[in-house]
Amino acid sequence: APGQAEMYAGLQELGVANGEDLKETLTNCTEPLKAIEQFQTENGVLLPSLQYALPFLDLHGTPRLEFHQSVFDELREKLLERVSAIALEGKVEERYKKLEDLLEKSFSLVKMPSIQPVVMCVMKHLPKVPEKKLKLVMADKDLYKACAVEVKRQIWQDNQALFGDEVSPLLKQYILEKENILFSNEISFLQNFFSPSPKTRRQGEVVQKLTQMIGKNVKLYDMVLQFLRTLFLRTRNVHYCTLRAELLMSLHDLEISEICTVDPCHKFTWCLDACIREKFVDNKRARELQGFLDGVKKGQEQVLGDLSMILCDPFAINTLALSTIRHLQDLVGQDTLPRESPDLLLLLRMLSLGQGAWDMIDSQVFKEPKMEAELITRFLPLLMSFVVDDHTFTVDQKLPSEEKGPIPYPSTIPEAFTKFLQENRIACEIGLYYILHITKQRNKNAFLRLLPALVETFSDLAFSDIFLHLLTGNLTLLGDEFALEEFCTSLFDGFFLTACSRKENVHRHVLRLLLHLHHKVAPAKLESLQKALEPTKQSGEAVKDLYNQLTEKLELRKPSPAEVTETPSMELPLPTVPTPASR
After folding, report:
1. 437 falls within a domain
2. φ and ψ at 216, to 5 degrees?
3. By C-alpha distance, which of 287, 247, 257 is closest to 271?
4. pLDDT tens for residues 355-397?
């Protein structure tokens, strides 16, 4: 049987008798019992004292197989311990010479299940397994599967396609996990996509597996980075940039200097990681980051491609944008213009580098994007003027009202603001974060004033998953406003529904929001929204599923038919009684 052949694979090459030899002996002999006894003597454990002990075991009914198996297991454990010890003792050349000799002697038994762990252990401890042996392992699916990651690394480093096959499912899983968080049915302003700390994120399954697969192997690390760059270029998916930073910092946590010292982005990423943890770029770290950017030497500009990818990580963009909004508010209090703040200019420089990552890697032109002067001289002062409008309005409300009545909140948006959001990527990013900021402050007036500017934005950024995920979370703070017709019309008809039919992700986010807040929405509005959001034949499963969940929730809210029929009976016209006043 093929199973038997596997069990004894390689024994003949070593001159050790196996099952086939016994079969042959018994087939060609005249006295089978004598032949068996002779086979046992020749192939048993050659220890004189055992001759007397074995019959004693026979008396206790212990089968010989059980005895030999336990001796075998014991010896194998001892051998495995010895192999691990050899790998650590003596001079480097000597210890590896011993292991290579051992591998040479034992490799023919690699397919024998009982011996395989020993052979695998020897290979695991060899920093360089002979090429010929690696090829044999690679060619056999079962052997490849059984060998340790230390051996696989040696195979992978010269077989990019095979390594790609191993890494690819992990990268798919990673992207899927990120998307699941963005589309999660849990909506909250307290817990969102950016809540987990960098250290927590690095404990994720994919990052840990990739870290283990790479070990200390620079060649494999470079391959993974190449995969991430290629996929980022092909898909424009920014989550690959997050993984690029997480992987480097995971190796940093393990103090793998072999890789960290050769990655030119290491110190920059480490410093930025601390900012992401605090969700703010303080002055000290800002200087440090600026030092890295200014320190890019002539001839080494290619490092800008990697730095831009690190800065394109949504967690980095989030930190830079939040810091920018905070700086702008401080400047209002200090009566200072944006162009006079070096810290603010550095944040814009990094935002610009991050947002330009795709173009830089695609064009292979490694130089920092030019900052548009108007962004600093016109757009940011505009945002500051919105902050001033809010302050003025608040103060006005507190003043004793005179004949002229209360001053209304400014409702028009400067045309320049809308134009900037449509044409300038950095302005758009900062503008969107300002809108998230006022929503989080429950500033309904400012929100409704600026919302129309989101219908058309640069590259449809206002309809991107990350923005909508954050916006839906912050909108829960304005829950009570959903009862008002004007608020719902502005938000749904004026913004969300303008993109629902052409963008499936927007459809999903609106349904997520309604699943969470449907009980706050006025019934008539809810009914019209339910009609407007009905999935079409082209809608994906996710939209249909969310819509069905919403429909079920709304059904549960409707009063039951019994209640409906009983209600009128309680409202029978009361008998008219003449009122005393009519006398």
Report:
1. yes
2. -110, 15
3. 287
4. 999 999 999 999 999 989 999 999 999 999 999 998 888 887 7
**Residues 454 and 319 reside in one and the same domain:** no
d(CA 264, CA 296): 10
- As a whole-number percent, the residues of the chain with pLDDT over 90 amount to 60
Helices (H), 313-379: 314-334, 342-355, 357-363, 373-374
Task: Return the closest-CA partner of residue 429 out of 238, 233, 231.
Answer: 238
Q: Which residue range(s) make up the domain with 532?
A: 411-551
Same domain, yes or no: 178 and 73: no
Helix or strand run (H / E) with residue 427: helix 425-440
Task: Indicate if 266 and 304 belong to the same structural domain.
Answer: yes
Q: Which of 412, 329, 421, 437 is nearest to 378 (CA)?
A: 421
Amino acid in position 49: S
Q: What is the mean pLDDT of residues 304-321?
A: 96
**Cβ partners under 8 Å of residue 197, min gap 6:** 277
302 vs 18, higher pLDDT: 302
Same domain, 483 and 546: yes
531 and 435 housed in the same domain? yes
348 and 418 both lie in a single domain: no
Q: What is the pLDDT of residues 34-49, one digit of tens each?
A: 777 777 666 666 666 6
Q: What is the pTM of this model?
A: 0.84
Residue pair 173/206 in contact by the 8 Å Cβ criterion = yes
CA distance 291 to 89: 45
Would you list the DSSP string of 540-565?
-HHHHHHHHHHHHHHHHHSPPHHHHH
Q: How confident is the model at residue 570 (pLDDT cuts 50, 70, 90)?
A: very low
Q: What is the mean pLDDT of the chain?
A: 86
Q: Are residues 179 and 299 in the same domain?
A: yes
Dmax over CA atoms of the chain, in Å, equals: 138
Number of domains in the chain: 3
In DSSP notation, 57-69 reads: HHHTT--HHHHHH
Two tokens, residue 183: 């589309």
Q: Is residue 17 part of a domain?
A: no
Could you tell me the end-to-end alpha-carbon distance of the chain, in angstroms, rounded to an integer? 115
Question: Which amino acid would we find at residue 178?
Answer: K
Model pLDDT for residues 158-197, shown as the tens digit of each residue: 989 999 999 999 999 999 999 999 999 999 888 999 999 9
Q: Minimal CA–CA distance to 347: which of 377, 367, 318? A: 318
Is the pLDDT reported for residue 201 higher than 80?
A: yes
Q: How far apart are CA 289 and CA 319, in angstroms?
A: 14
579 belongs to a structural domain:
no
Residues 6+ apart with CB under 8 A from 202: 208, 246, 249, 250, 253
Asked if residue 164 and residue 123 are part of one domain, the reply reads no
- Cα(72)–Cα(553) distance, rounded to whole angstroms? 65
Two tokens at 71? 């001796």
The reply to whether 70 falls in a domain is yes
Give me the count of residues in the chain: 583
Q: What integer pLDDT is reported at residue 473 of this predicted model? A: 96
Q: What is the pLDDT of residue 43?
A: 67
CA–CA distance, 292 with 284 (Å, rounded to integer): 13
Torsion sign over Cα 396, 442, 195, 290: negative
The Cα–Cα gap between 183 and 180 comes to 5
